[in-house]
Amino acid sequence: MPYDMMLTCEKRTLYKIGGAYEKRWKEVSVADAVGTATGDLRCVHCGGEVRLHHRKVTTTTGPQDHAEHRRRQDSEGCKAGHYFQGEHRRSATPIE
Q: Which of 14, 29, 31, 79 could make an S-S bridge to 65, C-beta 3.0–4.6 Å?
């Protein structure tokens, strides 16, 4: 899966459960996550930190909203990474 196909990520979202507020991970599209704090976003596949890229051109030929790994190590070990080397593994520094 090439890096420009990483169209979803996980966002830490606040939920009210049994009267108490709790943060949990929810899979969202990158377009919906734009503007979210960096520490509250992670890769769906490996749990590593991601950065979001927002479409800047109005034509359909430009790259669409997508995410990419912040750390090259994560990208090399994740099946959704641009530098994937063939063996999927969890991030060395996952965001929990």
A: 31
